[in-house]
Amino acid sequence: MLLQQKNVTTVHHFMEANPRFFQQPIVKKFLEDETNVLLLQSVIENRNEIDNDILNSRFQVFFLKARLAKYIDKVCRWYILSFEKTNRIHQSQLILDRPVSNEDNAQVLLQNLPHPATLLREGDIREVVEAFADKRLYQAYHDLGDKTKTILNGVFIYELTTYEMAELLGCSQQNVSRLKSKGLKKLREAVTDE
Length: 194
Hints:
194 residues
């Protein structure tokens, strides 16, 4: 590559003729080594083919090392970010079934949490029926089965999930969802029927 420019006689003239090439960071770093500068000077001033091959091979090795270093840097950064993200997730998780202390009979944190029903303040609604002002809705609610009433209270008053309700009642989530839907449908029909 360097031998193709025949009208350039010194390194200084060559650098002036190719300013963009010599402004590249990789080329600047490569030419910090005095041996590389001397090889470049020999190629330009003496048109030495052997030095040209040596200079090219040295630059290829230098370039590959630079690319490898950049790749390793990116991989390290990715692993660091991945580790930090995983570490943040694990640190932010509250493990409720982990023992509170190292004793053999230590309670787990989950056993110390209050039931949602005990978290209600004085004057809070404790059952769905307390929120009904319409007599038809009130009557339709009383006509529902006990299990359906329990599900509606759990879901709408205590904000329990269908999974939590299923665990509480000892039935499947599908059954809880089906009973909730049926109960809401009956309440809706009671209000819309004139």
